[in-house]
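Input structure tokens:
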């Protein structure tokens, strides 16, 4: 339990007796915020350039739509869906659904986002350590599967990971134990032989600890 409230560096994580490792993706393997900002800015530029709607109007509608989606889908992967934010924002603006435009802007968001992704070098070194020690690895991540697979492709996670579990697949988000149970099933290991590493105290650390997995906040 002593690991739970202390922030750790990747290099300091002790791998003695560890046979499996679960890692969070967003804000653990790379910095989330710069990517999210790039995606958002690309969408605002696109609607302005194409004179679809003013950037300020979209910003206000996006904010309202995001809050509504968070409340409506709390605890589910799709609560962060940019497609749903855009769908709902465009309905607020146009008074009707605009699925084709929502799809176009979603693509625009994720293209710019993925393009901005850069490895946290310490995380990559840690994964090399895990691989060298023959430790089985699983990403445990909140969000819909399609975009998390695209991030997997962008970072080349194939090189380092055996498995991925998304909250869409599990049905509920971290810290719900269901997602950690699914990861343990895939790794075919008991919780005592597995560690979890992530940036979010409630989701990654308390969630894993509830399932008996030793967790490291980084
Ligand atoms: Mg995270």
């Amino acid at each position: 339990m002593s690991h739970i409230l202390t922030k750790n560096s990747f290099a300091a994580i002790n791998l003695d007796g560890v046979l499996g490792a679960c890692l969070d993706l967003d804000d653990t393997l790379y910095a989330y915020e710069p990517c999210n900002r790039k995606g958002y800015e690309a969408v605002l530029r696109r609607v302005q350039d194409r004179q679809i709607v003013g950037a300020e109007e979209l910003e206000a509608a996006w904010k309202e739509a995001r809050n509504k989606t968070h409340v409506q889908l709390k605890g589910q992967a799709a609560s962060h869906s940019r497609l749903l934010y855009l769908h709902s924002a465009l309905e607020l603006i146009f008074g009707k659904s605009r699925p084709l435009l929502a799809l176009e802007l979603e693509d625009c968001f994720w293209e710019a986002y993925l393009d901005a992704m850069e490895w946290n070098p310490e995380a990559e070194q840690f994964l090399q350590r895990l691989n060298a020690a023959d430790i089985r690895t699983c990403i445990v991540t909140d969000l819909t599967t399609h975009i998390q697979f695209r991030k997997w492709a962008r970072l080349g996670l194939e090189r380092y990971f055996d498995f991925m579990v998304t909250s869409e697949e599990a049905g509920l988000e971290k810290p719900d134990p269901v997602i950690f149970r699914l990861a343990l099933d895939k790794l075919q290991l008991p919780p005592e032989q597995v560690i979890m590493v992530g940036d979010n105290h409630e989701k990654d650390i308390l969630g894993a600890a509830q399932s008996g997995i030793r967790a490291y906040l980084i």
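The beta strands are 20-23, 136-141, 163-166, 194-198, 214-217. The mean pLDDT is 96.
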